[in-house]
TrEMBL record:
Protein name (database record): DNA topoisomerase I
Compositionally skewed regions (Basic and acidic residues) per UniProt: 1-12, 202-227, 257-270
Keyword Cytoplasm: no
PROSITE patterns: TOPO_IB_1 (PS00176), TOPO_IB_2 (PS52038)
Compositional bias segments (type: Polar residues): 42-81, 108-118, 148-162, 190-201, 321-340
Keyword tags: Coiled coil, DNA-binding, Isomerase, Nucleus, Phosphoprotein, Topoisomerase
GO biological process: chromosome segregation; DNA replication; DNA topological change
UniProt xrefs under Pfam families: Topo_C_assoc (PF14370), Topoisom_I (PF01028), Topoisom_I_N (PF02919)
UniProt key word Phosphoprotein: yes
Location of the active site: Y842 (o-(3'-phospho-dna)-tyrosine intermediate)
Domain DNA topoisomerase I eukaryotic-type: 480-856
Length: 883
DNA sequence: ACACGGACTTGGGACTACCACG
DNA sequence: CGTGGTAGTCCCAAGTCCGTGT
């Protein structure tokens, strides 16, 4: 064992060296290309994700300030004591949006797609599209649509056109934008086609193989899924390339070698990208379709392969795959059987340093107490949190004490938290922090380098010959669990994770990472290429859950998956109209289950609500669409629904929305005869909902609506609201669109503690500038009349300046004031809205990249370094790309 | 039909690095 | 040159969704 490990090590190191180059995208220039081929593949397959979509703007929750407040979390400052604060606030800004669903034209929804057909469909669509071109409201978010309908009322939204149909919706404070421009709906109808229905998918049955374990080198047992045979070494190429990084070797057979592949691939790829050109509808179809559905044949192959697995298989597999389909079909290699990689090399994970006792004594009933290092460690975790709001929560304290007592032992002097005084430890900690802060820049730098050196080898993995960043190679240090909201387990001790808790997943031919802690060994070694994790351990707080180590977001693997997510959302565009028509029809279904599904789908589509899985009692009490309680939705006649509930992360969602009468009535009916805490949708859960959605579109799940609505909204707003203007104005336009999306998705943040002070300071500065402006104007008047200028504030006489110069100054000052006022507005506006989350997770980066290209905005203005890396797959999109 | 195990995405806040300012 | 505001990172919790075994 060890031996082997060693070898690896070397390898890796070498590689590392190569790369020093820090960032840079791994993929080579064309970068995306290579990948592309893969991505497609994936689509087809399995799992994954679909994601979300969203819609209209109207809906936005009102958050205003309140929202923030609500979150209980936060704030460290203790001063305020309030307990957990949560929601109190809230008042929304009122908005209501009205939404209506627009009924739209086309009839049927269901359409399930006929399979094949891709080509056809495409063409069809295209035609359609062109004709109608614009409109289709479908593309737009519901809300938007509605709004339009409602027309006047909604000020807010922005969105969509008024197409004829729209339903009405309401209002909300936002101004209306120009929605009008939008076209109408035309398109929808056709869409259906496509898809194959469903399922195809892939399940890879094989996956489960299980595990036989054998002891392996590290002593840990290794499991293998299949009978594997011998190991072959990893293909040389893999290694080689590894060093470099770039090309990923395709899984293909060696022969294909990257080059060929690329070449061949490219065209394909191109095609995809090109789709952009094509009308939306077409595009989507094209791309998506092919990708998604693997031909049966393929699947089979894959499966078999996978099963067989083991090295031999691997190789052979690959080959075969390639041959069979890969290129032509576009399927992703992985697609069929769920294989995610062929070779995987990494160095495992790094552990936090062992606890270093500080010896500072806390007081119990006023007297210093001796604690063992273990006891002291836990006491310190608590002491450090002295100034946080957590320590105001009884639940937290109780859980902490329960766990700490286990370590103190039954007869320890410390029996009650009440008599504990952690101040000495807290102060010691503050001093340590201060010391650190006071270190010179050089010292800090040295420290940083030292750390880097220690961690470097863990930062990278080589997957299929490509060097990729590892996301979280640091094992979580022990600490006190900080749950969000009113989590029943907050304050519990999260114990230290040891190597014997960790399962490593690595290529069969790769050396097993050396266990970094002397005398210990890994729990298990696996060689499962159907998953992407490099290591995992079970969560010490909730033993049923796992903590995984994955590749970073910038990796090809994640990039592919991300792209598939957006492609799926784009596919929804083709189905959305039919889906909306269908659920609208079911609002009045006699079948209660159907009716609930229809209403729930409507809410998910219109409000971008999350699915809402069931939760255990030992988790914070939060809800999503399927788990909404009667008390969370209040119908206000004639047709307004007031939502108020805690969603993911205990973030409050408050919104008033105008809905279609049928929905309004349905909600009233669902509520009747129930208590506040009862489920609004008693006949529904996420699996039923998603099963239904899958019948409407292959791979469709609730989250896809969020992605769809978020991306379509951005695309729509950008195209509608970008006027000429300078760079700064364009950026403002983008951020405005981004903000709309964040509001729709209810992405909030707490108001910074210094927000109000900052606003005041801005006001002061503006006032000051205004004073200067007045003075300049006075000066100008005098200068024009030839009078000497008045003395300045400092009492000194000013030099006389000619009127032109004064005018210039006035213009400058005026511009400065305007800019500051704009900045101030934006700041106030965004104080509770977080733009980052949607940018990272919901907005198809190709929309942004294409927009930047079209409007000559440097992409760096919109994406920071991490985002650029994460979205490297989207960089070469055609400027005409539209979601 | 379900409960449950499992894998992967999404999310806000703490922490840091960094940059403009007085 | 300290500072404070921020933008960017890190951290890890909390969701979604799939497959499975019962």
């Amino acid at each position: 064992m060890t031996v082997e490990a060693r070898e690896d090590k070397n390898m890796m190191e070498d590689m590392d060296d190569d790369d020093d180059a820090p960032l840079v995208f791994k993929r080579s220039g064309s970068s995306s290309k290579p990948k592309q081929s893969e991505p497609e593949n994936k689509l087809s397959s399995q799992k994954h994700n679909a994601q979300v979509g969203r819609q209209s703007s109207d809906v936005r929750p009102q958050n205003g300030t309140n929202a923030n407040a609500q979150k209980g979390k936060s704030v460290t400052s203790s001063s305020s004591m309030k307990p957990p604060v949560r929601p109190s606030l809230v008042s929304p800004k009122s908005s209501n949006s009205s939404v209506k669903a627009s009924p739209i034209k086309s009839p049927d929804v269901n359409s399930k797609p006929s399979t094949s057909v891709v080509g056809e469909s495409k063409s069809v669509k295209s035609t359609i599209k062109e004709e109608n071109s614009e409109d289709s409201e479908d593309d737009k978010p519901l809300s938007a649509r509605q709004v339009a309908g409602s027309s006047k009322n909604n000020p807010n939204q922005t969105n969509k056109p008024n197409a004829p149909n729209l339903g009405k919706k309401s209002n909300v404070p936002k101004p209306e934008d120009s929605d009008d421009e939008i076209p109408l709906s035309a398109k929808f109808q056709g869409k259906s086609n496509a898809g194959a229905s469903t399922s195809r998918s892939s399940h890879s049955e094989e996956k489960k193989p299980l595990v036989a374990r054998k002891p392996d080198k590290n002593g840990s047992a290794s499991t293998e899924r299949k009978p594997s045979t011998v190991l072959q070494k990893r293909p040389a190429d893999g290694v080689a390339s590894a060093g470099q990084s770039n090309l990923k070797k395709p899984k293909l057979s060696d022969s294909l070698a990257s080059k060929d592949k690329k070449a061949s691939v490219k065209p394909e790829v191109k095609a995809e990208d090109d789709e952009d050109l094509v009308p939306l509808s077409q595009r989507t179809k094209k791309s998506t379709t092919p990708e998604k559905k693997p031909s049966p044949a393929l699947k089979t192959n894959n499966k078999t392969n996978s099963k067989t697995n083991s090295k031999t298989n691997k190789k052979s597999k690959q080959v075969s795959k390639d041959n069979n389909y890969s290129k032509s079909s576009k399927l992703p290699p992985s697609s069929g059987d769920g294989q995610k990689w062929t070779t995987l090399v990494h160095n495992g994970v790094i552990f936090p340093p062992p606890y270093k006792p500080h010896g500072v004594k806390m007081l119990y009933k006023g007297k210093p107490v001796n604690l063992t290092p273990e006891q002291e460690e836990v006491a310190t975790m608590y002491a450090v949190m002295l100034e946080t709001d957590y320590l105001k929560k009884p639940q937290f304290k109780e859980n902490f004490m329960t766990d700490w007592k286990k370590i103190l032992g039954k007869n320890h002097v410390i029996q009650s938290l009440e008599h504990c005084d952690f101040t000495p430890i807290y102060e010691w900690h503050q001093r340590e922090k201060e010391k650190k802060k006071q270190m010179s820049t050089d010292e800090k730098k040295a420290l940083k380098e030292e750390k880097l050196k220690l961690e470097e080898k863990y930062m990278w993995a080589v997957l299929d010959g490509v060097r990729e960043k590892v996301g979280n190679f640091r094992v979580e240090p022990p600490g006190l669990f900080r749950g969000r909201g009113e989590h029943p387990k907050m304050g519990k001790l999260k114990r230290r994770i040891r190597p014997s808790d960790i399962t490593i997943n690595i290529g069969r031919d790769a050396p097993i990472p050396e266990c970094p802690i002397e005398g210990e060994r890994w729990k298990e070694i696996r060689h499962d290429n159907t998953v992407t994790w490099l290591a995992y351990w079970s969560d010490p707080i909730n033993g049923k859950e796992f903590k995984y180590v994955f590749l970073a977001a910038s990796s090809t693997l994640k990039g592919q998956s991300d792209k598939e997510k957006y492609e799926k959302a784009r596919l929804l565009k083709d189905y959305i109209q039919g889906i909306r028509t269908a659920y609208t029809r079911d609002f009045v279904s006699k079948d209660p289950a159907k009716k609930q599904i229809a209403v729930a789908t409507y809410l998910i589509d219109k409000l971008a609500l999350r699915a809402g899985n069931e939760k255990d009692d030992d988790e914070a009490d939060t809800v999503g669409c399927c788990t909404l309680k009667v008390e969370n939705v209040e119908p206000v006649p004639p047709n307004i629904l007031k939502f108020d509930f805690l969603g993911k992360d205990s973030i409050r969602y408050q919104n008033e929305v105008e809905v279609e009468t049928a929905v309004f009535k349905a909600i009233q009916q669902f509520r009747s005869g129930k208590k506040g805490g009862d489920d609004l949708f008693d006949k529904l859960d996420t699996s039923k909902l998603n099963a239904h959605l899958k019948e409407l579109m292959p791979g469709l799940t609730a989250k896809v609506f969020r992605t769809y609505n978020a991306s379509i909204t951005l695309d729509d707003k950008l195209s509608r609201e970008t006027k000429g203007g300078d760079l700064a104005e364009k950026v403002v336009t983008y951020n405005h669109a981004n903000k709309e999306v964040a509001i729709i998705c209810n992405h909030q943040r707490t108001v910074s503690k210094t927000h109000s002070a900052q606003m005041l300071r801005l006001d002061e500065k503006i006032d000051e500038l205004k004073g200067v402006l007045e003075e300049l104007k006075t000066d100008l008047g005098r200068a024009r009349k030839g009078k000497p200028l008045l003395a300045g504030a400092d009492g000194k006489a000013k030099r006389n300046i000619n009127p032109e110069a004064l005018e210039r100054k006035i213009a400058q000052t005026t511009a400065k004031i305007e800019k500051m006022e704009r900045d101030k507005e934006t700041k106030e506006d965004l104080k509770t809205v977080a733009l980052g989350t949607s940018k990272i997770n919901y907005l198809d980066p190709r929309i942004t990249v294409a927009w930047c290209k079209r409007h000559e905005v440097p992409i760096e203005k919109m994406f920071n370094k991490s985002l650029l890396e994460k979205f490297s797959w989207a960089m070469d999109v055609d400027p005409s790309f539209r979601f």
